[in-house]
Amino acid sequence: MQSAFDAVPFDIWHQVVHYLDPNDYINLSLANSKLYNLLKDEITARKAVKAHIAHTVEGDLASVKEITYREALGRVYDIRESIATAQPYSTSLLAVGQDFLFNQGVVCYISNGQIRTLNLLQAAEFEQVVDLDEAFDPYHPRSKGHRYPDLKYKLLYYNDGIVACLCEPQSRDVAWLLAIDVKLEFATSRKGYRIRYCRPMASTRNLFVRHNRSVMYYGTHSGRARHGHREWVLHGFDFVTASDINIQPIQLDNFAGSEIGSTVCFEIKDRYLYAVSNQTSFEDEEIDWTSYYICVRFPLNKPTDIKWQRIWRRQHREGPINDNWTKLSLRVDHTTRQLNIVECRHEWQNGGSENFRINYSQPLDCFDPAETLEGLLKAAFSTSPAKHGFPKYLPVRSLPDEPLARTLDPFSKPNYEPPRKRLKKFYHLEYTPEEAQSPERRDFTLSNTKYHTYNLMASAFIDIVNDPPQQVKSFTTPPDRLRLRIGSRKRQFQQYEMDEEGESAAAYPPTPTSMISSPITQSDECFKSRGIKMWPANDAPAELLELLCPSKKAGKVVGTSDERFMVYSTDSGLGDGTKAIIMISFDPSIGLKHMKRLNQRPFGRRKPDSEEYGSDADISTAQSMFDTHPEPTWFRVEPAEYLRLDKGLWLR
Question: So what's the pLDDT on residue 36?
Answer without folding.
Answer: 86
